[in-house]
Amino acid sequence: MLQSYRGLWKHGEASYAYHIPLQYVIVEKGQHGSFKHPYSWIKIRPLSHGHTKQETYPVIWTHSKESVDIVLKDHTFWIPRRIIRRGPKSWKKLTNRWVHENTFRTCLARAYKGNEEYLSPGWGF
Asked: Which residues partner with 79 through β-bridges?
């Protein structure tokens, strides 16, 4: 008898409520011995996001309440691989990827400001 693994990403049963579809190109992969960019990190250039394949992403700066539409293909940034998942019911290797929206927004805003590094809160560097 097969056991049900509900809630696992690879079985397509997990919640995608906080994720958005993303098309991207891998610019660089992290190295195994690197502290700053280990093999579990990738540097990506996003091409489009969402179900409608939008090429710009609106970001609202909280301190000034200013809204900016960022052109995705103009920016590259490092992001942990675990943040990017396969789409629902998909086993394709190169298409139908979904990304955690909050992390994607943070990485894109930092890339827009000129910092392509993603630093998790509390890492201290």
From this structure: 42
67 token code pair: 């809204």
- Is 82 part of any domain? yes
Q: Which domain holds residue 64?
A: 16-112
Q: How far apart are CA 68 and CA 113, in angstroms?
A: 12
49, 73 Cβ separation under 8 angstroms: no
Q: How many residues does the chain have?
A: 125
For residue 87 the two structure tokens come to 């789409």
Give the model confidence (pLDDT) of 80-123 as tens digits: 888 888 887 777 777 788 888 888 888 888 888 887 776 654 44
Q: Does some domain include residue 90?
A: yes
pTM exceeding 0.85? no
Number of domains in the chain: 1
